[in-house]
């Protein structure tokens, strides 16, 4: 597979280059670096441009500079963009006194790396040559996803395009002189219109379900796959219904606007820069060494790690079509920066955002989850939390006493209690027993699960106990390792998810309904297929939603998924976009195999354990942003996990039935 | 693997009566006491032979708790057979049978074959429902009846197979239009079409699609 070789080549060559730049200490545990033999045969670098940068934020100081290259191997052309290794000696600061805020961790920088993407995977290149500021390009992939804008600090866009044209067919789009279509021999206009499989207005008649022309191969549908894993260009057949994808291009214009704003912002800075006598140069400050397994790394000396500075003005529209790269989980030293001297989290939005994109390191979860779940208020102080812990522990004991004190004689006359207790006893021994924390006979943690659930069924007697609750509680207890704390975290979670367990299933039905609406706007062919196959009740997603994907992922991954969902950062209903993202990944199979309700349900069930979490989160992010207000409008007010709109009894009185 | 027919089964009954364990014993021939509780529905499949015909059973194992009923009901759609399970050591699971039966009658097709199973018969010392009561209930409601143990595997094979045999017999008698999949039956490759299906025709339409 020559792409792999090429990847190795570019990677290693770049590594070698970075060593020459004098940063041998930056030996991060980047798994993508391969130590295999350097394969030079047949590959030729046909274009090199230094100081091509990505701007993860609006601030020029946070740009990531790198080297853009075009590499030809046999008849194939590849593009790579590799960020420079951060090197304190290699670059000058802006001289504007913002150096301390401009550090981007090495690991974040590397997330943007473009490794040997083949031009067969590239649909188009959009060129921007603003009169003031730097030229940049946006590379759009066949999948409709795009890389962040690449800024040419030293110019060279024209040369870049000219070089491409020498090796692969490149034509100017008929509808936009700044869009260049790659490998588009037939119909440039149509080609430029086909992009994401997004909303389509042209209905597909029942008799002719939409098939492959608009399908995304589930393995290739997302940018988060490593680029060299991608397959070759897929033939696309023109379909008028695809023209609606022009909406996507309109979305792109938002990116353009962002890029323009960014550019003028940058220009302002450059102005200052010029006045202060500095030469324009990449300004990446020394990024500290972050090792993937820093816990085992005792030699790490650089502790003055500064996280990506929370920036309330950062324009997230930039992630519109691709979903941001996932970040490494929040670490302890980074976490402490969010706390003021008395322990308040002053900028909870930034914290939630940080967790949304990277999750939390496991050892930190016990602390952070209490905030995410709402047991602790973000603006509480250390002292207040300490006090709360004491009083809540007592309160828990009081509620627990309510059932603990029921004698055998009393229980005989208390059917509802016996039933609940019986159900819980039966279920806790059927919950996560394959996880070592809960395995084995007479495991005390199983007994704690039991006590918490029974106490909860008294604390919230109207809702009681329902199957699925033990699935939600088990990872919480696993993280908290404390009965009372776990109880209150579970209470906080159930404030949002309680309606999932209503006997009338209204909470579930409203979410399934919202999901069907979201699929309708985000993937109308799939929606039409479900309609025709009589699957619009979306019961096949029931388990996903009821217990927040708990059964679909391993413990490690479900904890990550949950903390991302619990940030409620982009949407309170991000989980529904996750559902859409998963369905979209498998849409080709679902539609192609003409799955009926039974087959679909079985198929979805069997996806358990095989869903790629990070990729799905990125897809969901992109979908959520693309859907925007239209997406939010699909979700009726009060749909879980929204907090109840009014106080008072959340749960209609429910007949306990132990059927 | 090719089959003459595919039958869809559904297993219903109170939570904790051993539905998932019966399924696992039948499909995998093992007893797993620490199986995770079922959320929604799970699946199993196995080939059996009736009258020298390979028959594939696709079995849907449902969640037992009442709160899931409104969802579970949708799974009755197109089931040819149902195993209605209670636990002989818990009287209330027997008392709830009528309610389950009502659900089944209301949401399944009228010709669905229902097998009543009194599970956990290995726990005879804790028995709370007599064999006679089970028999009586089955007789009153026109069900096939068996006591079984998912733990020891006693009667598990028999329960699934005799249900299939009953369905097969109904096909032979022309009770079903097997070309109509809403009866929970699909005709596979190599199947001998039932009396209501033309010899030349539709016998291969659904082969292998649910493997």
Automatic annotation (TrEMBL), chain A:
Transcription regulation listed as a keyword: no
PROSITE patterns named in the record: TBC_RABGAP
Locations listed in the record: Cytoplasm
Gene Ontology cellular-component annotations: cytoplasm
Keyword Protein biosynthesis on entry: no
GO MF annotation: an example: GTPase activator activity
Domain Rab-GAP TBC: 359-569
Record keywords: Acetylation, Cytoplasm, GTPase activation, Phosphoprotein
Entry-linked PANTHER family: SMALL G PROTEIN SIGNALING MODULATOR 2-RELATED, TBC1 DOMAIN FAMILY MEMBER GTPASE-ACTIVATING PROTEIN
Function, as annotated: Acts as a GTPase activating protein for RAB7A. Does not act on RAB4, RAB5 or RAB6.
Assembly, per entry: Interacts with non-phosphorylated form of RAB8A; phosphorylation of RAB8A at 'Thr-72' disrupts this interaction. Interacts with ARMC12.
Full protein name: TBC1 domain family member 15
Organism in which the protein naturally occurs: Aristolochia fimbriata (White veined hardy Dutchman's pipe vine)
UniProtKB/TrEMBL annotation, chain B:
Keywords on record: GTP-binding, Lipoprotein, Membrane, Nucleotide-binding, Prenylation
Keyword Cell membrane included in the entry's annotation: no
This protein's record includes keyword Transport: no
Gene3D superfamilies linked: P-loop containing nucleotide triphosphate hydrolases
Subcellular location: Endomembrane system
InterPro entries xref list: P-loop_NTPase, Rab_GTPases_membrane_traffic, Small_GTP-bd, Small_GTPase
Gene Ontology terms, MF aspect: GTP binding; GTPase activity
Name of one Pfam family that matches: Ras
NCBIfam families: small_GTP (TIGR00231)
UniProt-recorded name of the protein: Uncharacterized protein
Species of provenance: Aristolochia fimbriata
